[in-house]
Amino acid sequence: MAERGAPMEDSAVHGQRPRAESRSPVIDQVEGGRLREGPEYATFRSRGTTDWLLIHTVAGSGQLTGVEGSVRTAVGDAVLLRPGVLHDYRTAPGEAQPEGAHWEIVFSHFHPRHAWLPLLDWPQPVTGVGRIRTRGEVHQRVAATLARSAQAGVGTLRQATAFAMNALEEALLWCDTQNPLTSRMDERLLRVIEHVDAHLAEPLTVDRLAASVHLSPSRLTRLFTEHLGTTPQRYVERQRMTLAKQLLDLTNRPVAAIARELGWRDPLYFTQRFRRFTGQSPTAYRRRR
Q1: Residue 16 burial class via C-beta count within 10 angstroms: exposed 0-12, middle 13-18, buried 19 and up
Q2: Per-residue model confidence as pLDDT tens digits over 194-209
């Protein structure tokens, strides 16, 4: 028997259930959860739902069927069902899972905020059923943020729904990094970007960054140019300068201390680079306040 908060069903093979009440088409409404089901699990929706449904597979495999065909999900696959789309879904047959048929998912029923609509434009292997494949760290982040959204939604915080919606938005944003309809970002590039932002004071040469994700320096440079329109060196300097401006604005630290904090041992060289980046010296930039 599915736990409280399971995807809303018309009927299931493990027992007839009351038909879900119709939901009003409002925004900022979310309900999620996590399920692990065996080979008998199946849900039939002859009328679809009145909200969007996001299902992310974390273990095993599932099969979703729409009017025009079926979609099989593997670990890391996120499936997005639009409102009103007739569909069924079930644990995938055992032959597809040598270790035994099961399906573990995190899911979310939601009414999206208007600003989310571009994030919901997914490739549709079956009409009305979108799918984005996530792997590695992106998969882990999507699963974690959907679980956090579900947990927040049943919490007692005064802004529980807002916390749940914000976590769901983060999951959709991570899915969007892998959306081939936009500009799917290589997972290795995402890891480098996060490493740079967390280690700005360290030596961040192209060789070191490339080695951290097992790429050649030339390949990493091509990825940066393709996805971000800049080179790794320029990206690192841009991030350092952005933080330098914040520290100059918000603190009274000496310029030399800020330079050291951002990886420049020579304050004079930092000043030269800062002037080239902003058109002002660090002192003049701070004085403008």
Answers
A1: exposed
A2: 889 889 889 899 999 9
* pLDDT of residue 110 exceeding 90: yes
200 CB burial (10 A radius; 0-12, 13-18, 19+): middle
In the three-class reduction of DSSP (H, G, I as helix; E, B as strand; rest coil), residue 154 is classed as: coil
What's the number of domains the chain is made of? 2
CA–CA distance, 81 with 7 (Å, rounded to integer): 12
Task: Tell me whether residue 6 is in a domain.
Answer: no
Are 21 and 135 members of one domain? yes
Range of the domain at 69: 11-176
Give residue-wise pLDDT tens across range 137-158. Answer: 899 999 999 999 999 988 777 7
Contacting residues for 59 by C-beta, under 8 A, at least 6 apart: 36, 75, 102, 103, 104
Quick one: CA dihedral 22, 27, 32, 38, positive or negative? positive
Q: For residue 196, give the DSSP letter.
A: H
Report which of 125, 114, 100, 103 is spatially closest to residue 55, judged by C-alpha positions: 103
The per-residue pLDDT for 191 is 86
